[in-house]
Amino acid sequence: MQGILSKAQIDSFNIPVYSTTRKEMEDLVEINGCFTIEDMAPLIHMASDAEKCSKHLRAGMEGVFKEHFGSEIMDELFDRLTRKIEESLILSEGFLTPNELFVILQRKVGN
């Protein structure tokens, strides 16, 4: 965040995120051997406006950001995020691709 954070603070921040593919999930369940997949579907989250999107991210990520950057900048950070979302196309229909899976597993008998 220009003028609020140092380059070193930003460069040292990392959130490793990985979303598995449908095939990878199927393979993992098969390797585990204890379950069968009863149903699997992508989850698509569409926030209706920039403020809701920003609040959703704040609810899930604020603790991580506070720990790294400090609590004093949180309001400014999420205010800026809301403005950035408003300026972007992220809320446009068709922009988001599913990156989470909803999976219903059935335990195999005897496991």
TrEMBL record:
Protein keywords: Magnesium, Metal-binding
Which superkingdom is the protein from?
Eukaryota
MF (Gene Ontology) = metal ion binding; methyltransferase activity
InterPro entries this protein is in?
Answer: MeTrfase_7, MeTrfase_capping, SAM-dependent_MTases_sf
Q: Known PANTHER family for this protein?
A: S-ADENOSYL-L-METHIONINE:CARBOXYL METHYLTRANSFERASE FAMILY PROTEIN
Please report the name of this protein according to its UniProt entry: SAM dependent carboxyl methyltransferase
Q: Which source organism does the UniProt entry give?
A: Coptis chinensis
